[in-house]
């Protein structure tokens, strides 16, 4: 295996840059840290673009949310579109006074950004990642308790930067659920199933984040090669699932010897890509991989993977999730939002966050933009055949290539259901 690493990498192995800067030089050669309290700009020009820097910040929030969510359900699949949750929180911060605003901004990593117009940049980011060619839909909404009087000074910037208006509950559980479902259907073009869970009557503030993605590969799979194959749940248990195959797939690949996993990246239409993390052993705990996930780590991977040709098998996926991420957020230093926040920019009445709901749908099948690889992808010549079979538990990251934004993240322990 080590020979494979040496063949595919130039320079350092993937992503463990805690002792190196972006050029690969030891930290001793780096400039002394800034002692003025002002965040030091990253060396990589990619993160100097305001929209990319914001995308990195809220993506790091997303990886934090994923880690907590995964830790709460270690034996279950996880499917999250953290962007929709981050958007709802960022929008809510418009109505927060300084103490509460700082709590939200720290969780979203805004305290590391020197940007006087974060909300204006967020509008730019949302427009970029939800462009029609991306096949990605995301929407967020703030729902308030019935009869609440909301200040127009909160509604105007909310609508300007986030393209949404707050909703005030009627107090009629059936009507409120119907209205919420109708909004989700309109935003997601009917791609997400209607919820049957009633909105609790005691809600003060409810955040709702929804997202849907159906991937279209740059190079489509031949549906005639799709067949039922074994997926190894662990060393002893296997299940049969539809697996797509490509004996001459062009992908970007690397082996991380520290994380003991094989990493592959497949391009999608619309400047998107999916990065897969596949442990070398089916029994390997995924926690070490999960702990390494940051915007900077994923960006480094994107730069360092090498284009190769491989025998590829990948399960067809159609997953959905509906539930709360309330507990996860409470464990992310946001508990004060649920206890005694200051949202006096929204209303004169004391209100607090009660519930955060997330609904998402995610699927990929054989569909693709073309039958042949992009002419710009020239695989490295290997002296041995390489296989990449996603036939055991893995983690995937859906990333927007243009901005670096994390759009979806999943832990797939059993591809048959979420």
TrEMBL record:
Residue ranges annotated as transmembrane are none
Superkingdom: Eukaryota
Entry keyword Glycoprotein: yes
Name recorded for this polypeptide: Pigment epithelium-derived factor
Q: Where is the composition biased (Polar residues)?
A: 19-28
Give the signal sequence positions.
1-19
Which stretches make up the Serpin domain? Answer: 63-415
* Biological source species: Ursus maritimus (Polar bear)
| Family under the similarity heading | Belongs to the serpin family.
- Give GO MF terms, alphabetically: serine-type endopeptidase inhibitor activity
Question: Would the keyword Signal be found if you checked this record's keyword annotation?
Answer: yes
Note down the stretches annotated as region Disordered.
19-41
Q: Where is this protein localized, as stated in its record?
A: Secreted
- Keywords in alphabetical order: Glycoprotein, Secreted, Signal
């Amino acid at each position: 295996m080590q020979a494979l690493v040496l063949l595919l990498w130039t320079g350092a192995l993937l992503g463990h840059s805690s002792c190196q800067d972006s050029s690969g030089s030891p930290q001793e050669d780096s400039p002394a840290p800034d002692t003025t309290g002002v965040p030091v700009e990253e060396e990589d020009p990619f993160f100097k673009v305001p929209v990319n820097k914001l995308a990195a910040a809220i993506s790091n929030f997303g990886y934090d949310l994923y880690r907590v969510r995964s830790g709460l359900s270690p034996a279950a699949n996880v499917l999250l579109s953290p962007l929709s949750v981050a958007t709802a929180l960022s929008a809510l911060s418009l109505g927060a006074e300084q103490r509460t605003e700082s709590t939200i901004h720290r969780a979203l990593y805004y305290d590391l950004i020197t940007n006087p117009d974060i909300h204006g940049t967020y509008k730019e980011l949302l427009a970029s990642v939800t462009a029609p060619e991306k096949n990605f839909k995301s929407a967020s909404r703030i729902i308030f308790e019935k009869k609440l009087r909301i200040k127009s000074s909160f509604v105007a910037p909310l609508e300007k930067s986030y393209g949404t208006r707050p909703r005030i509950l009627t107090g009629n559980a059936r009507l409120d659920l119907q209205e919420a479902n109708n909004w989700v259907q309109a935003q997601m073009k009917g791609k997400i199933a209607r919820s049957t869970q009633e909105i609790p009557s005691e809600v003060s503030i409810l955040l709702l984040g929804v997202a849907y993605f159906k991937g279209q590969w740059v190079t489509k799979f031949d549906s005639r090669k799709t067949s039922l194959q074994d997926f190894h749940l662990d060393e002893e248990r296997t299940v049969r699932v539809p697996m797509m195959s490509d004996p001459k797939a062009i992908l970007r690949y690397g082996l991380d010897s520290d994380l003991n996993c094989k990493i592959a990246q497949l391009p999608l239409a619309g400047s998107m890509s999916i990065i897969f993390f596949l442990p070398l052993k089916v029994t390997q705990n995924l926690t070490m991989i999960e702990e390494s996930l940051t915007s900077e780590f994923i960006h480094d991977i994107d730069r360092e993977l090498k284009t190769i040709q491989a025998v590829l098998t990948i399960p067809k996926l159609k997953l959905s999730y509906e539930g709360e991420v309330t507990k996860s957020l409470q464990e992310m230093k946001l508990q004060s939002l649920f206890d005694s926040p200051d949202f006096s920019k929204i209303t004169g009445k004391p209100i607090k966050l009660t519930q955060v709901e997330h609904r998402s749908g995610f699927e990929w099948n054989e569909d693709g933009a073309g039958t042949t690889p992009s002419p710009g992808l020239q695989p490295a010549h290997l002296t041995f055949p390489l296989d990449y079979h996603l036939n055991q538990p893995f983690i995937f990251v859906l990333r927007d290539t243009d901005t670096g934004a994390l759009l979806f993240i999943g832990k797939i322990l059993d591809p048959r259901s979420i």
